[in-house]
Every structure is written in structure tokens, then in C-alpha cells.
Specification:
By secondary structure, the chain is an all-alpha fold. 68% of the residues lie in helices and 0% in strands.
């Protein structure tokens, strides 16, 4: 197999395409990670809110306080 010679312009174009593909890939991956982080974060927030608002944590409305 012979090595194909590329002009500077062709190499530049291929590099631009490669960089563009990598940029899109990284952007997609980072967006997916960000969405997962936000989902996890809001789930923790819901659990924290639920436990904070639990009647057991509020002595004024504790149903077991006789």
C-alpha cells in the first residue's frame, strides 16, 4: 500500500473535521453528565425536603408525643 500525499489544505480540512467531531462528542458527553448530575442533585433535594418536612422532625406535630 502506498502512502497518499495530502496537500496542506487537505490536511487542514481533515484536522478541522476531526476537531469538529471531537468537539461535538465532548459536548454531547458533557451535556449527558450535566443532566445526570442535575437529576441526582434534584433527587437528593427532594429527599432532604421530604425528611425535613416529616412530622417526626417537627416536635409540635409529633403524633407520638402523648
Amino acid at each position: 500500500s502506498s502512502i497518499k500525499e495530502l496537500s496542506f489544505e487537505q490536511m487542514e480540512q481533515r484536522l478541522k473535521e476531526l476537531v469538529d467531531r471531537e468537539r461535538k462528542y465532548l459536548s454531547k458527553r458533557n451535556n449527558e453528565k450535566l443532566l445526570k448530575f442535575k437529576d441526582d442533585s434534584s433527587e437528593k433535594q427532594r429527599l432532604t425536603t421530604a425528611s425535613t418536612n416529616s412530622p417526626m422532625n417537627n416536635p409540635e406535630v409529633n403524633p407520638f408525643d402523648f
